[in-house]
Amino acid sequence: MDPRQMAMMMKRMGVEMADIDHVEEVVVRTRDAEYRFRKATVSVIRAQGSETWQIVGKPERVARGATSATPSPSASVPAAKPSTIPPATASPPAAPTVIAPEDVRLVMEQTGRNERDSRAALEATGGDLAEAILRLEKA
């Protein structure tokens, strides 16, 4: 699917994507370090009442309390080690996502996949149509 078709499909499904202009710096703080993206591209994706922010760039890792930066070994934020993942906050369990039959049909039409695969992709993405379609097209 070419980018133009993808943009049209996303618009039909109510998915909006916008770039944030003139970004000077993005900082992600963890308990032990900061990841500073100085030359980052930032996009906001709005779908089904939620926003997803995407940061593209190469971060510098700075230990909390340190003054000098050390470049990150890769172009993306390093994966957290299991021992450094912060504990989950106490919150009520999320209600299961109700998948509408018309959403399943739309994913089936767009991907050519069967109902079971389409429903599973929608459940895995919390009902996000665009993400479900993208996952099935990549698989």
Can you tell me about this structure?
- The chain folds into two domains: 61 residues, Single Sheet (Ubiquitin Ligase Nedd4, Chain: W); 41 residues, Helicase, Ruva Protein, domain 3 (Orthogonal Bundle).
- The chain is built from four helices and seven strands.
- With 139 residues, the chain is an alpha+beta fold.
- Strand 6 and strand 7 form a beta hairpin.
- Helix 2 packs across helix 3.
- The radius of gyration is 19 Å and the shape is elongated.
- The longest helix is centred in the last third of the chain and has 11 residues.
- The chain has a four-stranded antiparallel β-sheet, with no helix packed on it. Strands 1-4-5 form a three-stranded antiparallel β-sheet, with no helix packed on it.
- The protein is 29% helix and 24% strand.
Give the oligomer, counting copies of the same chain as homo and different chains as hetero: single chain
CATH topology of the largest domain: Ubiquitin Ligase Nedd4, Chain: W
Sequence stretches where pLDDT stays below 50 over 5 or more residues: 68-91
Mean pLDDT: 78
Task: Specify the CATH class of the largest domain.
Answer: Mainly Beta
Q: Helical amount among residues, as a percent range?
A: 25-40%
CATH superfamily of the largest domain, by name, is Nascent polypeptide-associated complex domain
- Gap between N and C termini, in Å? 14 Å
Brief account:
With 139 residues, the chain is an alpha+beta fold. It contains 4 helices and 7 strands; from the N terminus they run αβββββββααα.
